[in-house]
Amino acid sequence: MDGFKRRRELKKSHILQAALTLFMDFGVQKVSIKEIATKANVSQVTIYNYFESKNNLVHEVIKHYISETWWEFESLFDNDLPFPEKIKKLIFAKTETAQHINSNFYNVIMKEYSAGISYIEELYQKKAIPKMMELFEEGKREGYVDPDLSNESILMYFHIFKEAMQREDIYNKILPMTEDIMKILFYGIIGKGDHPN
Amino acid sequence: MDGFKRRRELKKSHILQAALTLFMDFGVQKVSIKEIATKANVSQVTIYNYFESKNNLVHEVIKHYISETWWEFESLFDNDLPFPEKIKKLIFAKTETAQHINSNFYNVIMKEYSAGISYIEELYQKKAIPKMMELFEEGKREGYVDPDLSNESILMYFHIFKEAMQREDIYNKILPMTEDIMKILFYGIIGKGDHPN
Amino acid sequence: MDGFKRRRELKKSHILQAALTLFMDFGVQKVSIKEIATKANVSQVTIYNYFESKNNLVHEVIKHYISETWWEFESLFDNDLPFPEKIKKLIFAKTETAQHINSNFYNVIMKEYSAGISYIEELYQKKAIPKMMELFEEGKREGYVDPDLSNESILMYFHIFKEAMQREDIYNKILPMTEDIMKILFYGIIGKGDHPN
Amino acid sequence: MDGFKRRRELKKSHILQAALTLFMDFGVQKVSIKEIATKANVSQVTIYNYFESKNNLVHEVIKHYISETWWEFESLFDNDLPFPEKIKKLIFAKTETAQHINSNFYNVIMKEYSAGISYIEELYQKKAIPKMMELFEEGKREGYVDPDLSNESILMYFHIFKEAMQREDIYNKILPMTEDIMKILFYGIIGKGDHPN
DNA sequence: AATGAATGAGGGTTCATTCAT
DNA sequence: GATGAATGAACCCTCATTCAT
């Protein structure tokens, strides 16, 4: 990549980062192109030159965000922790990028996702889900996961949790309860003791 | 209440209902006062006469919505079902009002809530939470809930689920997995069988 | 029509007139909503309240213009002048409305017309053309028009002239040549004298 | 002309051609410098380097267009057809360049012309008009044109026609009526028969 | 009390043009 | 000499809100 292209990419990256920060703080709709331009120290038109429209900028920001997030997610698996610790980390690890995400921005991402935007879909289907499935299988092998449960159910279950953790308010409330929550997760609300039936 | 006041209340109610419907479908930001006025068959100014500002209207709509939702929530407890059935109903019952709620509107409500808006806070603290706590105690007495778990943790746990269920996409995906999800909820991912430790 | 409606119509008419004047002078594209608003002494938004979009305003201005023009056109027939005088008047009469029309505006009107916009089309097909045809028939009866010529051809022929007359530059150049032009129109370039073949 | 200059002229010509095509299709106002640059495979700035401003580019394009058109016009006279055939050809010949010209572009040219832009004016005054005058004189000599008519009047008359023919809609409507139109042109609407007075 | 009319502020977007390499 | 990058100004349009009747 020559100097021209590199500088272009750098500036694009600046704009993306500025937009990402603003979107995460205030949501997509509340942030105007003007604000992004100001924060990125460029003119509005420059943004249009690079991204063509606000909609497109939003797409690119999401891609940017998703791929950054992805690396952090993937790194969670790069260790030899025992299964329960992996799970704990997976749910409670505060990823650098993902925290403090404005709910509007979050919803926009979800809308993209459920609209089947290929980039996210592919990353999720081809990489994230298989990684999780593999983890569940490991848990089943080691006796930590009931082999009768379908991986899909467990995935949904985790998904719901992981998502809730992204919300700052919930995260803060739940942090002091980590142990209890982990217990419920593993042993259910009944606990490991004797069961009524 | 004399005729004047009654008509006034009726009109207010019309406006609230119109606004609620639109907010639930499209979110708060995407709905303009003009649209609400049109749907409610009044002029924009009438809305201002009654509600002073859009922000205030939103507050009132949320109050309206929360109280409607509350009756449905309360009614979930009016039965003699065994504990597990109550839980299932609690999580999976599609309340009439709450379903299909636009995520933007949902977030606005949540923001109100976490901002400590008194009305919601009070309803939640003084009515909803005690009702839930009572339920958990019942579960503990009957051996369905581990007595070592704090009620607060269980509450959070349920909260996360109940909230996820409000989202149409998640609800639809999870419905076919009801049994698995309930199993995880009660027995954890380990299941009721022998435990590794 | 009550006072409200009357005032509304009056204001609408103001805006239409302002827009018409500007369009005729500078063309549609060169005139901004802001300019129209300033000239009509209203805010831009008022124009949008009345006309919804610039496109729509243009439509309405054209309708307004066409109907005004129509009365003047129709009045040209309300007389007992001999056929040749009628023709002369028809071609050279400077209608109050039609003169000084900016060519861009003219083209926009023509585009509307050829797009088959119903209002203009109908006026033209059902009223203007029959009126002209009738005139040609009169001319044929009185020996002023060759009965072998199709009315359609004559219509086209006149149409071309009448249109050219609308253009200020042409009109001014042609005015001193009125007699010659009329002669050509009636007797052709060959003139009434003996013909070569 | 050395290689540098030749390449420069080639590029200029490319740009002119690209601009001309676009102007003829969409009009001057609707075509942006960016589009021209893209079509000509140069950068926007190159256009500015060569033509200084859009206005100036438009001038140059018109000059380019006029001179191309001129050759075609001139060639119409290079034959030994009898007078009536020459006239017919003159009016109905669809020149290669001139056809399908967007009306906006046409008007811009006309504005240039009536503004007395020297290049066009000169070509017109010194070349086109004399050529036409010569033709009329020929017609007069051969008895096809009434010697009492001033050449200026006939010129205007033809001008109006020729112009109308440039418009696609009119051209298409008039083509099937060629014979009638030619008859009117030569013998007037009265025709060659006996005259009423 | 209710409403039609009106608006200032701001949003996304486009364009002709200039800067800087 | 040629270009990618950048921009101020303007445009159409929307919205929450106020005015005037």
TrEMBL record, chains A, B, C, D:
It holds the Pfam family TetR_N. Residues 9-69 form the HTH tetR-type domain. Keywords: DNA-binding, Repressor. It comes from the Bacteria. One of its GO terms (molecular function) is DNA binding. Residues 32-51 bind DNA. InterPro entries: Homeodomain-like_sf, HTH-type_Tx_Regulator, HTH_TetR. Gene3D superfamilies: Tetracycline Repressor, domain 2. PANTHER family: ACREF/ENVCD OPERON REPRESSOR-RELATED, TRANSCRIPTIONAL REGULATOR, TETR FAMILY. This is HTH-type transcriptional repressor KstR2. It comes from Virgibacillus massiliensis.
